DNA sequence: TAGATTGTTAATCGATTAACAATC
DNA sequence: TAGATTGTTAATCGATTAACAATC
């Protein structure tokens, strides 16, 4: 048997950051009934270079056709697969304050994200229902995790509790965190984390205001 | 009079993205009572290189001292100034759904952001109060804008209405948008926009889950 | 087939890291 | 002063853009 070397080319963070944006624009094209598009046309819409679009996509495969361009539906589906949106993800929300409730109410269902549980430590919230899901007390989580598959935990809780909760989640077999707490959680063993940090975003806006460069 | 050439070196987006993160870590150090820190110590905490920290900061000025490092309080304040957090920003929220309410309730006050108005088109929301601020109907906005200084509009509304609203805001003299709508708003004349796109973030998490690289 | 547009290699540009002289 | 650590220049690395041969 011949030796085979598989070179897994590492996809850069810059590319990954852009994928959901392509997905979004392709969705708009779909809704507008556009059937095919060239990298050039897409580049004009998205204000990026056609070269970058082709480079980005070719990290994952050749989805286009010379002389034709890209089939919008096909490319949309392929990017969906790349992003893992072909799988259903069960989500729990930990911290059912205003933001937690907003997330629980958010309509992520069409992308395959399903809220299956809400948890808090505040007794007054116990039993409150959001979209038919009751708020449970956090100490019920270990039992809940045994009975239900949990793919993602959205953390909307004070930063003081974030790390401890992340470690607990890891021990319960939850390996992905969508983190809204005001602290970075990128050092929890075996855990995939996406930090949101709304206040960072607001500060960048503030910076832009202060340094408005009359573009 | 001698001619003076001021070379405004353009600060890269990569640097600007990192500034709020420095601010956050410095705040933690302050809370922990740490008085001074070297780029090396900070680098270990933040998992970035010391070189990058020094380069980043020196885009804005020399805030450290050879042989000593950086005074935490001083550096914190300076970064706050760079980010424009020394100014108060009046914020209105347009779209008072779950996310809009969460933002209205969010505690951004300590960074100088003050929610001064809430707007929606849904009559059933009229008069509802959040933190003492009543929900107004969107058609009252022009009058409200005349009477009040508005620095930032947070948009939490359906993507279909985002662009129109942005244009209206521009005409009312509002020049900064914190955009939560599921569409990019980077082509509105004279408008500074920070796009949040929570679903992009969730998709990146989904990607990480699908491609979990056993780090 | 001729024209269009991709996939991909090569060139350029910018950002990160390393190194070290300046200096507290 | 000697030691430490910055500010800054130079070297490296990676990402973006340009170019073009392959091909539908």
Structure summarized in a few sentences:
The structure is a homodimer of 215-residue chains. Helix content of chain A is 41%, strand content 19%. With 215 residues, chain A is an alpha/beta fold.
Name the features:
homodimer, 215 residues, alpha/beta, Arc Repressor Mutant, subunit A, Rossmann fold, seven-stranded mixed sheet, 10 strands, disordered N terminus, DNA-binding
Structure description:
Two copies of one chain form a homodimer. Chain A is of the alpha/beta class. Chain A has two domains: 13-82, Winged helix-like DNA-binding domain superfamily/Winged helix DNA-binding domain (Arc Repressor Mutant, subunit A); 89-200, 3-Layer(aba) Sandwich (Rossmann fold). Chain A has helices at 13-31, 39-46, 50-58, 72-82, 98-105, 141-147, 159-171, 198-210, and strands spanning 36-37, 64-65, 69-71, 89-94, 113-120, 129-130, 133-137, 152-155, 176-179, 192-195. In chain A, the strands form two sheets. In chain A, strands 6-7-5-4-8-9-10 form a seven-stranded mixed β-sheet, with helices on both faces. In chain A, strand 8, helix 7 (159-171) and strand 9 form a beta-alpha-beta unit. The termini of chain A are far apart. Chains A and B meet through helix 1, helix 5, strand 10 and helix 8 of A and helix 1, helix 5, strand 9 and helix 8 of B. Chain A binds a DNA duplex (24 and 24 nucleotides) through helix 3 and strand 2.
